[in-house]
Design goal:
The protein is an alpha+beta fold. It has helices spanning 15-20, 35-44, 59-71, 79-92, 103-110, 114-130, 140-145, 150-156, 178-183, 227-233, 253-261, 304-309, 347-355, 359-370, 381-409, 418-435, 439-447, 480-488; strands at residues 164-173, 198-206, 212-219, 243-246, 265-269, 282-285, 288-294, 313-322, 332-337. Helix 3 (59-71) crosses helix 4 (79-92). InterPro entries: RNaseH-like_sf, Transpos_IS4, Transposase_11.
Length: 491
């Protein structure tokens, strides 16, 4: 393995990503982010700027800087910090960048299509999920040896044809500019000038790996802006044999029908407007039954052709899940699933499958809180989406690094700390990207994600309270322009 290279590194080369990710060819999943992946993304989306010999901002360096902004927070996420990292990268190659203003970098970012970043994010997840370095089914002894959390271990005891995909939605806000407000209006319940542009997102996240498979983005309110409408945009990313797990909000006839047609299984909490114990249901056991759902009338958003392609009825299995833990809001609920065979998919496994849905809350917390994506800084809708997908690309790269450590050390990724691995990459992003890696750095990258054990918190119950008191300021009750006029007219 080579040590630090003293030779200048090519600015057009995507080797900068492999170096910043502390890679070598002997690591598991090392083929996921080979150079041709990024080159394919640039070719696919016609990215051709920065080809001159004296160019400072090449596609590879701009994307590298965008990801670096996602790895840092506050002032280290600024344009100035990103430009400084690029200038420092060039300084390590022996070249001084004379102009370190943010204008050129900002213009270069706009030449990098949002679609190329989204495609990279999705493709990295797809390659990792298909890798032979990852084990599918595990037994009880293996779950204990790999420190697999109980809820994940119980689900992975059964071998399935596809993936277990957790579905959930969340919101983020953006800088309050007219352009952002026009495309992503603020919450309609707020007065004009008092809110922030709101984006509604629906995510598909792998239960086994934590990788984000895809994301749909839309305005917070308006026609076809709900989570179920956004989920329909993600249907092409669901494959035959997959199992999607979601809460009762998504439990609709249309979703289950689509999944049945395409060979996708579903496990969702039964919608509160549907009977848990229908009179005509066929009893399987005391806590299991099958029932028939009839096709509702055609909704306004569905074409007649699509409506005619949907079956007139669906057979659904209802499984009662009892909760015997103090502090929980419910003593039990019912899961609706398209997995009708109660012998190959027993009720206990269905209960564990739905119980694993809680993990997606931690993944979204990692995205919104650890990566501080809850409040986006960009001032135009296009840059908002670019910033969002850059953060998601950083998220999947962190998850990939965790998977590498786990695959090499026989450790489940769900027992590792996301924040610790994020800190590892952020600390070494410029160092390794500019100077390359050596054996010690590769070893550090493999060992540090394993230093903490988390995830063994079954049915965690904690009060949602803060000990530290925030500074209390009077909340804005009218637009800032009115405050300015009031101060200007003060005597």
């Amino acid at each position: 393995m080579s040590f630090y290279s003293k030779r200048p590194r090519g600015a057009a080369s995507v080797q900068v990503f492999r170096d910043s990710m502390m890679q070598c060819d002997t690591l598991p999943l090392s083929d996921v982010i080979q150079g041709e992946l990024f080159e394919e993304a640039f070719d696919r989306f016609d990215v051709d700027f920065g080809a001159d010999d004296d160019a400072v901002y090449t596609p590879a360096l701009v994307l590298w800087a965008l990801v670096s902004q996602a790895l840092f927070t506050k002032t280290q996420r600024s344009l100035t910090a990103a430009v400084t990292r690029i200038a420092s990268w060039w300084a390590c190659q022996g070249r001084v960048v004379g102009d370190t203003s943010t204008g050129a970098y900002s213009r270069a970012r706009h030449k990098l299509p949002v679609g190329s970043i989204a495609w990279l994010t999705q493709t990295i997840a797809q390659r990792c999920e298909c890798s032979e370095d990852l084990v599918d089914a595990i037994d009880e002894d293996m779950a204990e040896e790999t420190l697999t959390p109980d809820v994940v271990g119980r689900v992975r005891k059964k071998s399935i044809a596809g993936r277990v995909i957790l579905v959930d939605g969340f919101t983020v806000d953006a800088a309050d500019t007219p352009a952002n407000q026009q495309e992503y209006p603020q919450n309609p319940s707020q007065k004009e000038g008092l809110g922030f542009p709101m984006l509604r997102c629906v995510s598909l996240i792998s239960m086994a790996t934590g990788l984000l498979i895809d994301l749909a983005i839309g305005p917070y309110a308006g026609k076809q802006s709900g989570e179920t409408a956004l989920l329909r945009q993600l249907f092409p990313n669901l494959h035959r044999g997959d199992i999607i797990v979601a809460d009762s909000f998504y439990c609709s006839y249309w979703l289950l029908a689509y999944c049945q047609i395409n060979g996708i299984e579903v496990a969702m909490k039964n919608h509160h407007k549907r009977e848990d114990c229908p009179v005509a249901a066929k009893k399987i056991s005391k806590h299991q039954r099958t029932t028939t759902w009839l096709r509702p009338t055609r909704p306004s958003w569905m074409s007649e052709e699509d409506y005619d392609s949907i079956p007139d009825q669906l057979e659904v299995r209802l499984v009662d899940v009892k909760v015997n833990r103090p502090g929980f809001r419910t003593e039990g609920f019912t899961v609706a699933t398209t997995m009708l065979d109660h012998k190959s998919c027993p009720a206990e496994w269905i209960a564990s499958l739905y119980r694993s849905r809680w993990i997606v809350e931690l993944d979204i917390e990692s995205i919104k809180c650890s990566l501080e994506m809850e409040h986006l800084r960009a001032k135009t809708p296009e840059m908002v989406r670019r910033e969002l997908w850059s953060c998601l690309l950083a998220y999947n790269l962190i998850r990939m690094k965790m998977l590498q450590s786990g695959a090499a050390s026989n450790r489940d990724v769900r027992s590792m700390s996301f924040t610790r691995c994020m800190t590892l990459l952020a600390t070494n992003w410029l160092l390794c990207g500019a100077r390359g890696t050596n054996e010690a750095l590769v070893e550090l990258g493999q060992s540090q994600p394993l230093d903490e054990v988390i995830g063994h918190r079954p049915d965690r119950v904690e009060p949602r309270v803060n000990k530290r008191r925030p500074k209390v300021l009077k909340l804005m009750s009218k637009p800032r322009s009115e405050y300015d006029r009031q101060l200007a007219n003060a005597v």
